[in-house]
Amino acid sequence: MDSEGRNRAGTFMHLNQETVAASVNEAYEGKLELMDVKAALKKYSWLQDYMWKVVSKDKDEFTKKVAEDYSGGYFMRILPGAELTFPLQSCLMITQKNLEQRVHNIIIAEEGSKSHIITSCVQHSSVPQASHLGISEIYVKKEAMLNFTMIHQWSENTLVRPRSAAQIDDRATFVSNYVCMRPVRDIQMYPVGYCTGEDSRVSFNSILYGQANSQLDIGSKAVLSGRGSKAEMISRAIAREGSKMFIRGMIEGDSSDCKGHLECRGLLMDDKSFMQSIPELIARKKGVEITHEAAVGKISEKEITYLMTRRLSRDQAVSLIIRGFMDVGILGLPEALNAEIKRIVDASTGAA
Fold it and tell me: pTM of whole model > 0.90?
């Protein structure tokens, strides 16, 4: 195993319509299962009970397509009490022109486990046009902690339709991070976290960089039905070069002592771009405590001027402010992963 592989708990690779690699670091054997979901369904008859449980196959035309025919996807199961020091990593890649990639992923974090998963979705630069339809169903069992980070690196002509949901049990925590730093033709996603357990927690965090006429419709929803359940949603978004961005968030309080907070901050960089923040709060029980704050603005000229007095050009000053605005600290990652995501953000915004 190469040095990069030794820094992962496991690696999964799905190329176009086929799983080409699924391996577990030998240090984590007995703590982790990782394989193609179709192989897992053959191995475990009980896994069928997890298919289409938190995501409805009839939700929309895209879920119906995946339900009718899918090429596979990843099955990840972190075993009870296991703590993965290094992250699980998966890659879903498209190298075939005009491909409609359809995958169905299932993640089960068993009781008392702790893990980080990083999944990267990539389209090869030689492929001008493609589509990705991805279903992800996630189960975070009692007292487990799962941090799930998705990094999208599509092309300017990709249609992307992920559909995901998580069920969070007693005293369990699910953190969902989404990072999009590359142009994409059209992406629409709205993951849902169902906090059904007592003192369950869900956190949705997004770092979004809209550019080159991209359209991003990004949101998340938390349903707080467990006693003492909590939700937090934080978004950082920049729109430039004619991009259109819709930033949505909904917290639904169905328990009398649940709490939630939604925060969205955006920067509009030119007159060709568009940004809309759409926060929604729903309370169904007396005692619900949910709040939101949203702000869309521009970069302060005072900040630019100050940095220019420090011998930076205007472009360098703007780039520095943008990188600071796209604070990867909101993702709640370990330092090593935090540094890697920061590197991606810095590389993407360096030419701002």
Answer: yes
